[in-house]
Amino acid sequence: MALDYLVFLGSARDSTPPRPARLGERVARACAKALEHRGHTVRIIDPLDLDLGPVFKPHFAYAKGAAPEALQTLADQIAAADGYVMVSPEYNHSLSPALAHLLNHFAASAFAFKPSVIATYSAGQWGGVRAAVAMRAFLSEMGCLPVSAMIHAPRAQEVFGEDGGYLDGVDGERWDGYLARAFDQLDWWADAARRQRTDKGPATPAFNRSPAQRNAP
């Protein structure tokens, strides 16, 4: 079954270090290429393509039909997607502030009952693994529960080219197998979740009126 995925590039940096400056772009393109090879529709969401303004105002704070066009377009894409890939570097042992800032513009219900894959990277040896720990809790709260298999790319600049393909000398077959473990799980859960949403709808109603909806009796 062909599915619809969004790959969120969790970096708004366009400066050095790291070198190359937009290292995450390579990882995001590699993930997109792998998913497209499976026959899926994939869009990369880049924070640099969105003008979120200096004052934080989330999509759900606007009156119906009054949200900026770019924000509304992304909200529609999030709602239509079957799953997500969250690509992030590590900042202070946590996920990228650019990724958190972007995702926080949308209610958790926009992502709910869909799976996600955590993909982290670094220019050094750790591959962003400590960011992944924080991302599990964050994405679970958003409702797009991460699958168990994760993707970590240490020294990503030595693995992926600008187009997301493998550089010369890289064991592409081994990397393909590594990515496939996460994306096999993503496909399985995304297909199952789509069937459930189609047949039964969401398991619980969205909390989108007041924080008090979460309160205990």
Write a concise synopsis of the structure shown.
The protein has 217 residues and is α/β, with parallel strands linked by helices. It is built from five helices and five strands, in the order E-H-E-H-E-H-E-H-E-H.
State the CATH class.
Alpha Beta
What is the CATH superfamily? Answer: Flavodoxin domain
Give the overall form: globular
Spatial order of the strands forming the largest sheet: 2-1-3-4-5
The CATH architecture name reads 3-Layer(aba) Sandwich
Structural class: alpha/beta
**How many E-type strands?**
5
**On the 0-100 scale, what is the average pLDDT?**
93
The number of distinct helices, counting runs of at least 4 residues, comes to 5
The residue ranges in which pLDDT falls below 50 over 5 or more consecutive positions are none
Question: Strand-and-helix sequence, N→C?
Answer: EHEHEHEHEH
Terminal Cα span: 42 Å
Helix content: 25-40%
Notes on the protein architecture:
This protein is α/β, with parallel strands linked by helices and 217 residues long. The chain has a single domain, classed as Flavodoxin domain (Rossmann fold, 3-Layer(aba) Sandwich), CATH 3.40.50. The protein is 35% helix and 12% strand. It is built from 5 helices and 5 strands. It has a 5-stranded parallel β-sheet, sandwiched between helices. The longest helix has 29 residues. It is globular. The mean pLDDT is 93.
